[in-house]
Amino acid sequence: MAAGSCAALRRSFSTSAQNKAKGAVLGASGGMGQPLARLLKNSPLGSLAADLSHIDTRATVKGHLGPEQLPDCLKGCDVVVIPAGVPRKPGVTRDDLVSTNASIVATLTAACAQHCPEAMICVISNLVNSTIPIATEVFKKHGAYDPDKIFGVTTLDIVRANTFIAELKGLDPGRVNVPVIGGHAGKTIIPLISQRTPKVDLPQDQLAAVAGRIQEAVTEVVKAKAGAGSTTLSMAYAGARFVFSLVDAMNGKEGVVECSFVKSQEEDCAYFSTPLLLGKKGIEKNLGIGKISPFEEKMIAEAIPELKASIKKGEEFVKNMK
Q1: Which of 139, 188, 216, 286 is the most exposed place for a label (fewest CB within 10 A)?
Q2: Catalytic-residue membership of 184
Q3: Domain 6-152 belongs to what topology?
């Protein structure tokens, strides 16, 4: 996947004709970028852009290919979504992902800082625990940094938590809500099952099992695809959900809350995922962790060293860039 691959999508995200947002999906030709672009088109690159442009929705689509077309792709964007990068496969470590995807994210966020510095930046590219610090440091280098506008998309962890809890208790997953905090990899993923709605009883063994499944859910998908790919469809769904929520808030909808990995002071970490109240200018208020159980306190304590190491790796990557 070329680092400069992108698709610009325009659509009205509300019933008001005045409330329109222009967005770019950078990496829209990839395994996850394609269904994500399709979902965003419903509420790019050559034939894909042409294909999407024939769908009868209010969004219009234009494809761009290569770094030289990034300025045209990004100019005037209100929201940029970055799924570009390589997915997790068997034998690929999280460190491998950072090494490969870091330069892609750095290149694309540098283009965003230059050509749409006011846009909301939604990074999906793994490892989010490192790519968000990369995006932040790149924006700082270009004098365009706003901590309220750079988001690590961790929504898939919430979607999985809701689904797995619903399966256990025979509930409608659409009515279940489990905040997930911390980071977006392995044990840094911390589902706050004590804060779930609706309230349901889970014995300790079941609680530990479902928390572990949420943390390692990507492994289920990688194994199921027998090395042919990683999470694409569910991540596209989760990414679209976050973008729709963000644009709703930008258009004035009140009370929009999503978890995201952002600049933070929680748990003495420079970045941390917590529930955020979203608004017209991005983060309106960080709602913090709230009251948690001893089990969740332990999970946080176990996650912090790994989370800090990943953050440092991202920051050092930008510091060492030529």
Answers
A1: 216
A2: yes
A3: Rossmann fold (3.40.50)
The 10s digit of each residue's pLDDT in 39-57 is 776 653 334 444 555 555 5
The CA-based dihedral angle spanning residues 78, 140, 320, 302, taken in that order and rounded to the nearest 10 degrees: -80
130 is in an annotated binding site: no
Distance, first Cα to last Cα, the chain: 23
- In DSSP notation, 159-221 reads HHHHHHHHHHHT--GGG-B--EEE-SSGGGEEE-GGG-BS-----HHHHHHHHHHHHTHHHHH
CATH 3.30.70.2190 fits 155-309, yes or no: no
Residue 111 marked in a binding site: no
Measured CA to CA in angstroms, residue 155 lies from 24, 98, 108, 220, 239 at distances of 19, 20, 21, 18, 7
Q: Which of 54, 64, 115, 184 is catalytic?
A: 184
- From the CB of residue 248, how many other CB atoms can be counted at a distance below 10 Å? 17
Q: For residue range 106-132, what is the model confidence (pLDDT) as tens digits? A: 999 999 999 999 999 999 998 999 999
Q: Is position 250 annotated in a ligand binding site?
A: no
- Give the pLDDT confidence of 146-188 residue by residue, as tens digits: 999 999 999 999 999 999 999 999 999 999 999 999 999 999 9
Every domain range in the chain assigned CATH 3.40.50.720: 6-152
Q: Which residue has the tokens 């659409």?
A: 174
- Please report, rounded to a whole number, the percentage of residues in the chain having pLDDT higher than 90: 61
* Rounded Cα distance, 322 and 320, in Å: 6
Do the annotations mark residue 32 as ligand-binding? yes
Q: What are the residue ranges of CATH 3.90.110.10 in the chain?
A: 155-309
